[in-house]
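chain below, 103 aa
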Amino acid sequence: MFIKSLFLGGLLMYKNIGQKMEILAKIIAWIGIAGSVVLGILYITSSAESWGLFATDVALGILIIIGGSLISWISSWTLYGFGVLITKVSEIAANTAKKESDT
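prediction:
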């Protein structure tokens, strides 16, 4: 029973893989954005506690927040685009198979 459920679960794992990749790309992007914001705030607060608050530390913390968020967002485009590509190719293959069976 356990082996059968593992096997069937493995088959279902690859159903709608394009949509799953799109969701994963969004999750990775949001985790990266949240991580960048947290790291930027931690950098600003830790430098303020250690040496006092300087304009360069605040600017660098803001740069970490903006730059890290932007890099996370842009880097997710590749995975998301690949997911869209897989979804569209799967739709085309299903439509082609349907037309061939009608003929």
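Residues 16-102 form one domain. The chain has one domain: 16-102.
thats it, cya
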